[in-house]
Amino acid sequence: MQVTKLNAQAEQLAGLLRQRNLRIVFAESCTGGLVCSSLTRIPDISACLCGSAVVYRIGTKECWLGIPPEDLARYGAVSLQIATQMATRVLEKTPEADLASAITGHLGPHDPPEQDGLLYVAVAQRVDAGQHIDVSVKEHWLPKPPQQEDDSEFALVRISRQQMAATFLLDTVCQYLQE
Predict the structure, then answer these.
(1) In the chain, where are the structural domains located?
(2) Residues 19-55: tens digit of each pLDDT
(3) Residue 16 and residue 174 in contact, taking contact as beta carbons nearer than 8 Å
(4) Which of 49, 44, 61, 3 has its CA nearest to residue 22?
(5) Within 10 Å of residue 65's Cβ, how many Cβ atoms?
(6) How would CATH label the architecture of 2-178?
(7) Interacting residues of 112 by C-beta distance below 8 A, sequence separation 6+
């Protein structure tokens, strides 16, 4: 069910990007590249998809995107501030892209319980002939998963939560483009 929704959101975003003649790039953390992967299933998507930086670890966020370690320490990797920087920096590093989206979140099981299911999605777009970048960020909470008895159950829950997170990102970008 969730895969069908993910694929439908990917199709919708591809259509909106084509309509507006825009190109997008992603910075994905908790989704591990699933957003970009869902789009690459669409024929001729290369006209509007630049790619995705999978910055799953804190060190990769620092090295690939240039996010200052002091910001990661101050705000935490799952925060509005870091999501904003992820989207802005991946857009800055991808001159051919018109907009970017980034996702960071806690999908469990070893995250702080009070943050389990917390996501931040940022959308950044070049404005004023590329002179400035406008950023919008949304916070979202995934539903609490059922208690898992073993690693195989956890793996299924994690896959489902990654699909929900990827769908939320695609939906957020579609809403942004429709405003």
Answers:
(1) 2-178
(2) 999 999 999 999 999 999 999 999 999 999 999 999 9
(3) yes
(4) 49
(5) 20
(6) Alpha-Beta Complex (3.90)
(7) 106
